[in-house]
Amino acid sequence: MRCLEVLKNLKGIAEGGEVNNRELEELISLGLVMRAPVSVEDAKIAELKSQLMHIKNQLKSLKGEKQDYQYYSQGKATMDIDKRIEILTSQEMQIRNQILNLVQDGAKGMVGKGAVTKGSDAIALTYKGKEALQIIEARMPQVSDLDWLDLTDKLEKFRSILSSEAKESAEILKMISQKLNFIEEYHLRSACVGLASIEGNPQEKASKFVRYVNEFKPGAYFGYNFAALAAEAAVANEVQLKETPENIINDAMLLLKELLKNRTGPGPDTQYKALAILLMSKPIKDRPDLFNKILDDAASTGNVLASGLMLFDSPSEQTIAQRKARFQDWLGRLPPRSNSDNTDSVIASALLSTANNPDLVTDKFNRAEACMRELFEENMFTAAATIALWPASVDETLDNLRLASAEILNNKLSVGGLENFSLGMKLLAPNADFITLEQAAFERNHSSYNATPISSISSSTLNPALVATGIAAVGLAAVSISLLASPLLTRMPFMVFHAVTLQEYAVQDFVYHPVHSHYLYG
Fold it and tell me: In what order do the strands lie in the sheet with 115-118?
C-alpha cells in the first residue's frame, strides 16, 4: 500500500471515518490497526469517558475564572463560582464511580478516540499505526507514492546506523571516562558522539583522544573544556588529513598561541579557542591570509568565531559582501538570549548568511524556530538555523531527530533534558543527508530547490554507511539535490559551532536546572 493511501486511511480511522474492507484487511495485516470486540459495557464506558472529559474541561475553565476574579477583585469571595465547581466535582465523582462499576462487572475494553465500529468490532490504531501516521505526515509529499514497506525498510536501515553510532559512542565513553576524570563527563559524552562518526577502530580512536587531551590540557591554552573539543578535532584531522600526531599537537598549540598573542578583535578567549580548533582543519599555507581576513571582519561582526565561520570556505569577495549583508540583516531580527550572551543569535546569523538558497532557508528557519519555541524556554536560534539548512523538510528533520535522540537516551549518553536534544543533533549531523529516490526526484522537479550535483559533493558529505546500506540508492550520482545547503554543515564547522552553542546551553541546563522538570526530546 502506498504511503499516501496508508496516511488517508489511518487519519480516517483516527477521526472516526469509514474505511473499505480491502484496505482495512491490508492495514490489519501490516499491524497498523486492530479489531477489538465491542460489548455494551464498552460503549457505555466510551460515552461516560466523553462526559467526564467535558466536565473536566468545565472545571478547568471555572478554576481559571475564579483565579482571575480573585486577582482583579483583591481576593473577594467567589460563592457562585465555588457552588458551580462543587456541583461539577460531585458529577465527576459519580461518573468515575459508574465507570469503575462497569469495569468491575467485567468490561474488558473500551472504544475511544481513534477507533471506529465495524460490525460488532471496534477498529483502532495500534501503537505501530500511530507512529506510522507521524512518520508519513512528516515526510509528505516526498514519500506519497512510495510503498509503506519500502519506507519502513529504509527507516530501519537509518535507525540501525544511528543505533550503531550511539552504541560505539557509549563504548568509547567507557574506555576514556576513568582516564580523563578531570574533565566533566558531559564534555566527554559530546566528544564520544563525534568520535563515533569518524572512521576507524573504537579502541584506537579512544586511545588517540586520550593522548590529545593530555597533550592539550597541560599547556593551559585550551583549558579543560576546550581540550576535549580540540582532541576530537585532532582525531578527525589525523584520519582525514593524514597528519602525524606530533604535527597536529604542535600545530594546534602554535595556532592558538598566535591567535591569542595577536588578537586585535573583540570577544573573550573562548571565541579564539574555538576559532583555533576550526582553523586546525585548514592547510597551514592558507592560514595567515585567512587569519588576517577574519580579524578584520570581526570588527564589524563583533565575534571572531562568526567571522571565521563565514570565511571558512574561502568565498569570493562578492560572496563575502553578500554574506555580510545577510548576516547584519539576520542579526537585526534575532534577539540575544541575555544582555551578556548574544552567541546564539550571532552564530545563527552567521550560519544563515551562508545559505545557498536564502529564500527557502528563511521559510524553513521560521518554521523550525516556531517549533523550538514550543520545546524550550529560551531562544534556540542556532538549532533552528541548523535544521533549516539540513536538506530535508523541517518536519522530517524533527522526526529524524526524534529517532536520533531516542538512541542517545537508550545508550545512556545523556541525562535527558537539553543534553539529549543537543547530542541527538550531533548524532544526526553526519546522517542528515538520509534520502529516498522519491525525495531526490521531488527536489529535482521543484525549482525552489538549489540543485547541486551529488557526484560533486558525495565524497565529502555523505555518510559512507548510508551509501553502503543502499539508502543513497542506485544512480544517485546522476540525481541533482540540494544536499549541501551551506558549507558550514561539514564536520569541523559543525563540531565547533555545536560546542559553543547547543552543547554549552545543554551544560548550563544540566548545572542550573533539575533535569526532571524539562522536556525529554525523544
Answer: 33-37, 121-125, 115-118
Cα separation of 43 and 47, whole Å? 6
pLDDT digits (tens, 9 = 90+) for 230-265: 889 889 888 776 777 777 877 777 777 777 776 655
Amino acid symbol at 316: S
| 305 vs 233: CA distance, rounded Å | 16
Mind giving me the DSSP string for 272-338?
A: HHHHHHHHTTS-GGGHHHHHHHHHHHHHHHS-HHHHHHHHTT---HHHHHHHHHHHHHHHHHS--SB
In sequence order, the β-bridge partners of residue 36 are 122
pLDDT tens digits along 236-245: 888 776 777 7
**pTM reported for the whole predicted model:** 0.75
* Rounded alpha-carbon distances, angstroms, from residue 145 to 6, 140, 157: 11, 10, 20
CA distance 11 to 8: 5
| Angle ∠(424,426,428) on CA atoms, nearest 5 | 70
Report the alpha-carbon distance of residue 296 to residue 292 in Å, rounded: 6
- Positive or negative, the CA dihedral 210, 215, 220, 221 is negative
Longest dimension (CA), the chain: 83
Please give the torsion angle defined by the CA atoms of residues 143, 146, 147 and 152, in that order, rounded to the nearest 10 degrees.
Answer: -50
Alpha helices in 355-456 (DSSP H): 358-375, 381-389, 394-410, 417-428, 437-444
452 three-class SS? strand
Please give the full DSSP string across 122-162, using - where no structure is assigned.
EEEE-HHHHHHHHHHHHTTTTTTTSBHHHHHHHHHHHHHHH
Residue 348 to residues 336, 352, 373, 500, Cα–Cα distance (Å): 11, 6, 15, 12
Under a CB-based contact definition with an 8 Å cutoff, are residues 122 and 116 in contact?
yes
How is residue 506 written as a grid cell? 545543554
Q: Which three cell numbers stand for residue 430?
A: 553526519
CA nearest to 500, candidates 286, 292, 267: 267
Sign of CA dihedral 299, 305, 306, 308: positive
What is the rounded CA–CA span in Å between residue 471 and residue 58? 51
Query: Cβ(396)–Cβ(138) under 8 Å?
Result: yes
Q: How far apart are CA 53 and CA 60, in angstroms?
A: 11
**131-159 pLDDT per residue, tens:** 999 999 998 888 889 999 999 998 999 99
